[in-house]
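Data availability (excerpt). The following record was deposited with the supplementary files.
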Amino acid sequence: MKYLDPKNDLTFKKVFGQHPLLLKSFLNALLPLPEGSNIQSLEYLPSELVPEIPLLKHSIVDVRCMDNHGRQFIVEMQMHWTTGFMQRVLFNASKAYIKQLDKAVEYKILQPVYALSLVNETFEPFKQEYYHHYKIVNIVDTQRQIEGLEFVFVELPKFKAQNLTQKKLQVLWLRFMTEIDENLAEAPADLLAMPEIKEALDNLLVSGFSKAELEGYDKYWDSIRTEKTLQSGFLEKGRAQGREEGEQIGMQKGEQIGMQKGEQIGMQKGEQIGIGKGRIEGFYLSAIILLRNQMALETVALMLNLSIETVRELKTLIDKYGVEAEKHIGEVV
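Predicted structure:
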């Protein structure tokens, strides 16, 4: 093993959280900045504007900075995709935008906030595009925009360099994020030929990390696997419940349209229902954990993309059942 994976918490923050010139190059390559307004210099800002989600607290790595124009940038590496992630990004960027009012007297002085999210999973399986750019636009005339917030989501698994004709530096940086890992013995020559990326690669050399740092590196991957297992567990539980319900539905329908056909229909519909229930249960359990940590109902609803009414019902479960609340989430589902 010669290099470490740049998507890890340790390495991502070392490359992009400690080297502003590398982060500047990365942002200029990845963000759709207006022509002639590239970032010239950066300063880092404190991280973590929103509380962590306990169930996914290790899967999100972020770096924040501000450029010479006062524009703010939030860069996040998301290992697992969740349905509430976009809302979390929106909340985070909006809060960064609003916090400028602490210094600005007039709204017109507020500077844009850009949120760049690198996602290590596919969340748009039926679309070929890996690069998703969002703005606040007029739905009839998209040239009319409300400036202030822009969002970019990059699906890393979809990125395939050999099929792309985009700006060279953008392609090289995305190759850096997708091709470099522990199994790579030698870095590609075209990556080493770009000074900024060569410097980033030098910062990933195993020889540059202490034993304690390498142990932390491995521990991070363990935590990611654990979180993935928890998510899969909720999903599989939903599937199992769906199969059971599906069999019952199938048996009942079988009396009318034939036992065999009824079971097939029931299994299919039941599994679909079960998968949905499994995902919902996972978010409900996360909500209960957050509520126990005294987080506001409105914040929990926003972070997990749940209705405020649902969060109130979950809070009622905590008040009613205490430490046994998780066993009764079916009353909400």
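Summary of structural features: Residues 49-59 have pLDDT under 50 and may be disordered.
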